[in-house]
């Protein structure tokens, strides 16, 4: 045995690197797939609701500051 216990290290590095790249590929594919299922109308309505809340809060703050 020329290499001793380190003889299989290059193959192990290759296997681990391949597994890592495959896992990253699967996670990206999953993220891309789940990203398409988002309903944009729900997002826009929730943003409009938050916008209206911000306007009402600003109005209340302005009234409170002006009354002092």
Mean pLDDT: 77
Largest sheet: none
Number of domains: 2
Low-confidence runs of at least 5 consecutive residues: none
In N-to-C order, the SSE pattern is: HH
Instruction: Give the termini distance in whole angstroms.
Output: 89 Å
Outline, from the CA principal axes? elongated
Helix segment tally: 2
Helical residue percent? over 70%
Binned strand content: under 5%
Count of beta strands: 0
Gyration radius (Cα, Å) is: 28 Å
Please state the structural category: mainly alpha
Account of the 3D structure:
The protein is mainly α and 68 residues long. The chain has two domains: 37 residues; 29 residues. It is 81% helix and 0% strand. The protein is built from two helices and no strands. The N and C termini lie far apart (89 Å). The model has no long low-confidence stretch (mean pLDDT 77).
Give the tags.
68 residues, mainly alpha, 0% strand, elongated
Task: Tell me the layout of helices and strands.
Layout: H1 9-35, H2 40-67
Can I get a quick summary?
This protein has 68 residues and is mainly alpha-helical. It has helices at residues 9-35, 40-67.
